[in-house]
Amino acid sequence: MVVTVNYHPTVGLPRIDDQLFIPQPARIVNIEQLTPLEKVFTVELPNGQSLGHKPGQFVEVSVLGIGEAPISVSSSPSRSDSAFELCVRKVGDVTSALHSKKTNDRIGIRGPFGRGFPVDKFRGKDLLFAPGGLGLAPLRSLINQVLDERALFGRVIILYGARNPSELLFKYELKDWQERDDIELHVTVDRGDDHWTGHTGVITTLFSDISIYPRNTVAITVGPPVMYRFVLIELLGKGISEGNIYLSLERRMKCGIGKCGHCQINNIYACQSGPVFSYKEIKGLEEAL
Ligand SMILES: Cc1cc2nc3c(=O)[nH]c(=O)nc-3n(C[C@H](O)[C@H](O)[C@H](O)COP(=O)(O)OP(=O)(O)OC[C@H]3O[C@@H](n4cnc5c(N)ncnc54)[C@H](O)[C@@H]3O)c2cc1C
Ligand code: FES
To answer: Which of 91, 94, 99, 247 to mutate to test the pocket of ligand 1 (most atoms within 8 A of CB)?
Structure first.
């Protein structure tokens, strides 16, 4: 989304476009229970408008009388015309209110906001995706765009980790990806159960299974902050340069447009300069990781 700055008619100070603060009344057209804690909501804007997002961007979702929360767009722009998908974990007020919604209910949507992944820079490169837990939700948007333009990219390697088998997201897509011979998918869970026959261990235990050509590889990781520290050690250890490692930083965001200061990290606002950053960009920021 382009942030339009008008000038106040009398005092001449920049004034942010008020429209950016007004949620659009959107309709939930489908709800899917993915795991005990996560649901995927398919949402339509009024009058068949397209959201026009890039992978990695987020929207502010509001429930009347409850509040607003930032949620990444989980569907790929290449697969979203009038509808888009949000994968939401029930953790607090807004997300619980969302989970109680039914098909055809209305919610508010502002956005899309933030800087998405620089997909143009990724073309021609080998891509190493390392989502952890709910981090697959935003990365799925990018992965599916890459798969829809498969010939424009090199190898596609996905290392996905969840805490246990019941928390694995988008299992039907994981199955499709597993069956394709142009994707190298490795899945692990921290703790298996009686039915789990796959790899067990934290996500970093998957890195020893793969060999890459670091000069031609871009790595993209999204997950909980604690995961980044260890995944970054693996990625740098494989020789991938700091400028070719991308991650998404979650902060407690409110306005989404650089006005409230809730998401400030040193001198930047994560909602505007991010949430997607290269490691090179944030390495020196004390509070970033
Ligand atoms: C860019 C971005 C993208 C995101 N994408 C997704 C997504 O795709 N799916 C998804 O499910 N979530 C996503 N989130 C996370 C989501 O926005 C948060 O979980 C949000 O807080 C949920 O709102 P809530 O009102 O339901 O929960 P809240 O009421 O905000 O509570 C959430 C949790 O945070 C704790 N908490 C509340 N206030 C504070 C505080 N001031 N300081 C510290 N902890 C506090 C609560 O105890 C609770 O555990 C994203 C966040 C960002 C910034
Ligand atoms: S969320 Fe308000 S400044 Fe970033």
So the answer is: 91
Verify whether ligand 2 is closer than 6 Å to residue 263 (CB atom): yes
Indicate yes or no: pTM above 0.85.
yes
CA dist 193 and 186 (Å) reads: 18
Q: Do 137 and 255 belong to one domain?
A: yes
Q: How many domains does the chain have?
A: 2
Both structure tokens of 89: 């974990």
Please give all residues whose beta carbon lies within 6 A of any atom in ligand 1, as ranges. 58, 67, 69-72, 87-89, 91-95, 134, 137-138, 250-253, 275
Both 163 and 128 in a single domain?
yes
In a domain, 17, yes or no: no
Tell me the CATH number at 257.
3.40.50.80
Asked if 216 and 127 touch (Cβ cutoff 8 Å), the reply is no
Please name the residue whose Cα sits nearest to atom 3 of ligand 2. Answer: 258
Mean pLDDT by 10 residues, the chain (289 residues): 47 56 94 96 94 95 95 93 93 97 97 95 97 96 97 97 96 96 96 93 93 96 93 96 94 88 89 93 82
Ligand 1 atom at minimal distance to the Cα of residue 66: 25
222 near 255, Cβ under 8 Å? no
- Among 68, 159, 163, 49, residue whose Cα is nearest residue 110: 68
Q: Residue 262: which domain range? A: 119-282
